[in-house]
Design a protein that fits this description.
Elements lengths: L3 E8 L3 E8 L7 E6 L4 H15 L5 E9 L1 E3 L5 E4 L8 E2 L1 H6 L2 E8 H9 L7 E5 L11 E6 L3 E7 L15 E5 L13 H16 L8 H5 L4 H12 L14 H8 L7 H26 L3 E4 L2 H19 L5 H6 L2 E4 L4 H19 L6
Parallel strand pairs: 1-4, 4-8, 10-13, 13-14
Antiparallel strand pairs: 1-2, 2-3, 5-6, 6-7, 9-14, 10-11, 11-12
Helix pairs in contact: 3-11, 4-6, 6-8, 7-8, 8-9
Length: 363
């Protein structure tokens, strides 16, 4: 009998994580991280090379889930990949056939992240603010993941009863484009105002006069712009040390963690402002669905949470009407660097189990 495997992929604008693991038995899991290509054909080639390298002789891939940034079609075979071309759907049906996958589907990357929450142990959940609960709450939850872009996801646990009276048979997720909602700033704060204006001006250079969104203000690529605004407003003596076009987001993060570095205070203040803006965005998302839990993930948050946490808390909890609700609402830092990949793995395994239960696969 052939050994059945699942294939999971988490593709971001920067890196693609791949995982191959057996659906039954104790065979070894294989995992790799590669730089995300700038063309779908190159992505397929890298996935194919990974499968060729690690799928044992006689092994078959029965189930696969590819997590991708962008809107996924209803049949889960096509995706408009946001960092390639958000207006063009790519059909992955032929790609699944080329890879000889028994059953393959697509998922939004943050949708995978939401499913990954259930696979994340309590030891990887750190309470950022609010009142502690079990870590995996029974009501709606919001996941926010800033990175190359800004992902927002919604979890509806199986305990929820829908307005129709029907009870969910399993955890459900709703991908969201909440990161593209128009952003709100304090017009009386000179740094926030300068940051908003510079972001708007940068968009206008490229012919886009739409108001800045939360993704414009919170994506990784925006951090250097915020850093420059902080330096010009509060650390004028450091302006001469700024290089044109720089620094990189990673460099600002590195400076924030470098005690004694001349630019450390400015870098730390940058992430304090970042936390304030992120808290404001997540408050809006939480109130939209009256969430019972909020989760924050992604490399930016994990690397800089000590500098953004307090401003995030104050911004998230401040509200003239719903402060009492927001103060109690638990906000968890997810210390799981493989959150999206874990979610894609869970989805692939669940899909395989369902096919087995329906008699589509004989085990």
């Amino acid at each position: 009998m052939k050994q059945a495997y699942l294939l999971a992929a988490d593709t971001g604008a920067t890196n693609t994580r791949l995982r191959l693991e057996p659906l039954e038995g104790d065979h070894e899991r294989r995992q790799d991280t590669v730089e995300s290509p700038k063309h779908v054909d190159d992505l397929v080639a890298r996935i194919h090379s990974f499968v060729e390298a690690w799928l044992p002789p006689g092994g078959v891939i029965e189930s696969a889930v590819f997590g991708l940034p962008g809107k996924v079609s209803a049949d889960r075979q096509q995706c408009a990949i946001s960092y390639l071309d958000p207006d063009r759907y790519v059909d992955f049906g032929p790609i699944f056939q080329r890879l000889a996958i028994g059953h393959g589907i697509l998922a939004n990357d943050v949708e995978c992240g939401v499913f990954g929450l259930a696979a994340t142990p309590a030891s990887q959940l750190e309470l950022l603010c609010g009142e502690r609960d079990a870590g995996h709450c029974a009501g709606p939850s919001i996941l926010g993941m800033p990175g190359t872009g800004l992902g927002v996801g919604l979890l509806l646990p199986s305990s929820i009863t829908l307005p129709s009276g029907k009870r969910l048979s399993g955890d459900a997720t709703l991908p969201s484009e909440g990161g593209h909602l128009t952003a709100a700033i304090r017009p009386d704060d000179p740094i926030e105002l300068a940051y908003y204006q510079r972001t708007f001006e940068a968009a206008c250079v490229h012919g886009d006069r739409a108001l800045p969104t939360w993704e414009h203000l919170l994506c990784g690529g925006a951090i250097p712009r915020l850093f420059r605004c902080v330096v010009h407003a509060e650390f004028a003596e450091l302006k001469d040390r700024l290089q044109p076009g720089g620094p990189s987001p990673l460099k600002v993060s590195e400076w924030a963690r470098s005690a004694g570095h001349a630019l450390q205070p400015a870098a730390a203040e940058t992430f304090a402002y970042y936390g304030r803006l992120f808290g404001r965005m997540m408050q809006s998302a939480a109130l939209l669905v009256l969430a019972e839990g909020v989760y924050l993930g992604g490399d930016i948050v994990l690397a800089n949470h000590r500098y953004l946490a307090e401003e995030f808390r104050q911004s998230f909890q401040w509200h003239t009407i719903h402060r009492h609700l927001l103060v109690k609402l638990p906000v968890w830092l997810v210390r799981n660097p493989s959150l999206n990949l874990d979610g894609a793995t869970r989805m692939a395994r669940d899909a395989w189990r369902l096919r087995c239960a329906n008699g589509e696969i004989v085990r």
